[in-house]
């Protein structure tokens, strides 16, 4: 990797520097738009005591769910437990610290962290367990709670196309949390389906500018369906 060229040749190089105790911000929603190969590399490296920030924790045996198998995650900030029995079991057994966070609030925590905004007020969660212990302010007759922004040591992101300068496009709903996650990591790593030359991407279609991206790698993807329903 030299100058503006953000490409790396291997997943080992892509996740170089990850250590025990780090905070990882991961894009994706369910199994849509998840950086599955970067997650697999974290599992291979065996990093422990991780704090993971993601909408959910994959499914049993795939996505972020694989990091639960060897107890690599000690804390997760997420919106729901989802279709993951192991995640549910570890949460109920208090083997993992789960901070449930409304989806919009979680997205804004990432966005604010990337924008250098330390905290923000939101009405979401006021008067519920989400708001317990948090500062409350009243604006125009409505109550709001103070939520702190989130940043991570690494952000792992799944894109569709990118150029070697790290400018990234996402495909349809696979965009989800990825653009916000990409801004919030000290080191942002993006895996994509295709890398093109600078100038081949229409500037108006670029979702994440290369200024946010540190490393980019082209991979192949399984693209599982989280819940398949067929006719009898």
What CATH architecture would you give? 3-Layer(aba) Sandwich
Highest-level CATH class: Alpha Beta
Rg over C-alpha atoms, rounded to the nearest angstrom: 18 Å
SS strand fraction: 25-35%
Low-pLDDT parts are none
Mean pLDDT: 95
Briefly characterize the structure.
This protein has helices at residues 11-14, 36-45, 66-69, 85-92, 103-115, 178-183; strands spanning 23-26, 50-53, 73-78, 97-100, 119-122, 136-139, 142-148, 152-158, 161-163, 168-169, 185-192, 194-196, 215-218.
Q: How are the elements arranged and paired?
A:
Layout: H1 11-14, E1 23-26, H2 36-45, E2 50-53, H3 66-69, E3 73-78, H4 85-92, E4 97-100, H5 103-115, E5 119-122, E6 136-139, E7 142-148, E8 152-158, E9 161-163, E10 168-169, H6 178-183, E11 185-192, E12 194-196, E13 215-218
Parallel strand pairs: 1-2, 1-8, 2-3, 3-4, 8-11, 9-12, 11-13
Antiparallel strand pairs: 5-7, 6-7, 9-10
